[in-house]
Structure formats: structure tokens, C-alpha cells
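Margin note from the TA: students keep mixing up input and output lines. Inputs are the sequences; the output is the structure of the whole complex. Example:
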Amino acid sequence: MRAVYGIVVRELVRFRRQRARVLASIGRPFVWLIFAGAGYAAVFAGRNEIDYRVYMAPGLLGMVVMFGALLAALSTVTDRDAGVLRMVLVAPIRRSTIALGKALGATVLGTTQAVVVAALLLPLVHLRPSLAGGLLAGLALVLSSLALGAVGLVLAASIRSLENFAGVMNFVVFPMLFLSGALYPVRHLGPVLRLVAYVNPLAYGVDLLKHALLGAWAGAGYGGELSPWLDVAALAGFAVAGLVAAAPLLAREGGVTRTAFRERV
Amino acid sequence: MTAAAIEARGLGKDFRSIRALDQLDLDVREGEFFGLLGPNGAGKTTTVHLLATLLAPTRGTARVGGHDVARDDLAVRRVIGLVFQDTTLDRDLTVQENLRFAARLWNLPGRLAVPRIEALVRQFGLFERRADPVRTLSGGMRRAADLARGMLHEPRVLFLDEPTAGLDPRARRSLWDLIRRLRQASGLTVFLTTHYVEEAEPCDRVAVMDHGRLVALGTPADLKRTTGVGSLEEVFLARTGHPLAETGAG
């Protein structure tokens, strides 16, 4: 559909213009690799099963997807503040079309960034996935981006203004990252945190990436922890649920006519 | 009798306990230049948003271009253009990119959109700036680009919600020139809201609104005659008991 395509194209053009955002998204995982990687690798040292930097690789790709897709979806908040959302809302398209366009834009951005990072990161840590592993990793990146994009839309609809953005970073993005298995296996967490981890879409994405990339270390307990089928189903579930929930929220009256409302009070 | 472009029957909207629009009955004819005059907070924007299907009415019904706003919102949005108080353009995109984005939202195929965008940017004096980010444009040019965006799908009814707010007099004049030419060229129905009396003067008919209610409706000449005063400003004062300008502060 043309409107969906238009929304996706706009996301891409915007992203290309924001050079700082491009560099940050590519550079961020390497910063983690160097600083977090060095520290944890020292802790891991002596257990010669896996180089921690290799172990981190799927999680770092998951991190790229998270920042890429979630932030793209959260740009809906900026769209609302800048008034652009109203141009979209006054177009003869359904709210679900808008949600789909935004989520697909997030998917393209999240996946592209992760693929670029993967092309640099995997050779750096000497990780050479098999063809099947590479394809599964690609699927994991696309599905995770879609799921996180859809969840990000729901978040964006619930955020009233950009000031709440920092709160989202602290209470959503970082817990999501730490409870995803990106930095350590989820099974080491206590029961409560483990429960939280399994309502975290990123956990399923990272798990699927581990199936794809760390198959050789599965025997030592560093591969995926869940069934890959469960991962795929959960990611698809988050994507559908997010899209269904986001569509009506996009048109919430407070967002559309906030000025009209303010004018009366 | 000419067909009605806009018909409202008992149309009203509450925001929680606030009655933004009480009960509006209104008919705007096809091709008419209709003005809704009132201070800020009178309910003008709420009226436009109800007619443009951006808000769901609390009570009453309305039809725009023959389509019911509650039951057939997509059909309504297809036949209307809407220029808001402040820009809806993406400031980081160029004028052309914004218009292409809008063209896709309105499902215009490229072979239709490209020549139309070219014609609009020329007509609206934006040709030289078409590849510049909207951020770098003056307020007047931005509003012209907004108007181009609103006209891209050749609407039958154009809503202008305080279109000149924040513009300097020169930009204001050139915007009105554009709108006049658009009306002459296409027989477009224009529904204008404003709190500037002088902008309501050229309208075919003017509705005066205050506190969510219509207090007067007629041609500017009729309104002045029946009220026995010389200006729309005084019409407003006589019908509401307070001047237009001072209540506009809030």
C-alpha cells in the first residue's frame, strides 16, 4: 500500500539526514564490546569454554535492533509534538495503516543497522556463522525489529511528551537490555527477574540470535536457552499484539487536538 | 438550491466536563467562502476537527461532501483539505519530500503526483526553495507549503484553521492572494476560522462563535445591518457583550 510505503520512505530519509544518529547506532555496540567486553571477559577468563566477546556478539546485535527499532518507533512522540502526526491523521488512511507503516519503518531501520554492525562485528570476534545460521540470524533480526517496533509504538502512544523520554530510557530500555540475555544467560537470573525477562521481546530475539550464531557453544550452555520455535512465535506475538494495541492509541484525542483542548482550559 | 458542502445538526463536543462545542446547526454551500469568527477558545478549532473527523462528536451529526463524519470518516478525509494553525510539515525534509510524502499518504500515484507537485510549488512561489528543508523556510513560505500540501489531492472542501496565525502582514496578504486564486480556479468551498475581523470581511457568510455557541450568522453586510453597526468587530461586541480582541488573550 502506497501510504505504508510513504511512511517507511520518510523514516529512511530522516534517518539518513541524522548523521549523528547513524554513527551512534553503528558505534554503540563497539563501545560496549570494548568496555563491557573487557571487564566481563576478565571475569569469564579461566573458564576456557567461550571468549566473552564471542558470547556478547548476538546480544550486541540485539542491542542494535533494540535501539534502532525502538527509537524509530518512539519518533512517533516527536511526530506528535512537531505536528507531523496530524498530517498523517488527516490523510484518508486507517489508524492501523499508520501503525503498520511506522512499525515497518522501524523494522527496516533496525534490521539494516544490525546487518551493518554484524558485517563489522562478527569478523572482529572471529565468529563465522554457517549459511543456515546466517539466514536464521537474518530472520531473528527482522522479527525482533518488527516486535520491538510494534512495542515501541505502544510506548510512544503512552508517552505524553519528550520529557518522559529519559524515563523510558531508564525504566524500559536498560532493563530490557539487561534482562534479554545479551550480557549473561537468562537462566542465571532469579525466578522473579527471569519471569520479567520472558515478557521482554528482546529476550526472544537475543535467544534466537544465539541459536543462529552460538550453535557451536550450545553444548557448553552458551547457546539459545529456549526452543527457536518458541522464540519465533513469541516475537510474532509481540509484533501482532503491539500493532493491534497501537492503532487506536495513535488517534487518541489528547494527541490530536491538544491545542484545542488546552485552549479551553 | 445548491448542494451542501457541510451540514451540521446539533453537533457538539465535550472534553471531560468542558463543553467545547454546544450544539451547532450549520449549512455551508458548495463553492461558498465561509468564515467562522470568534476569540480563542470559542470552539472554532473543535468545530473544524469534528468536521474533519479528527474528533468524534459527543452529540449530533455532520456531513461533509455528502459523507457522514462518524460513519464514513475515510470518505470525508478524501474530499477535504485541512491547513492547521501551525505547520504539519516535517521540518527536516525538503518541501518536495514533504509533498511526496503527502502524495503517498493520499494514495496519489507518482505519474499524477509529480506534475501536480511541480505545478503547486510554482504556483505557490516555492519553486526556488523546493529542495530546501522546511526548517530553513520563512513562516510565510512554510504556510504556503502547508497550503500546497492541503491542495495536493484536489479537495472539494478546504478547511483553514487560523491560517495566518503568526505571519507578518506581507506573508498574510500573499497567502490570501493564493487562496483567492484557488477559489476562482476551482469553485472550491473554503471554511475559514479566524479571530481577525478583517479576514472574515471577504467571506460570503460569517458565523460568529463565542463559548461554544453560534451567536450570529449571515453575510457580513447583513450582520452589520441587522445589528445596526458599521463593522464585524462591533457585531461581535453587540452579540456577546464583550469585545473580540480582549477575550482572545486566553
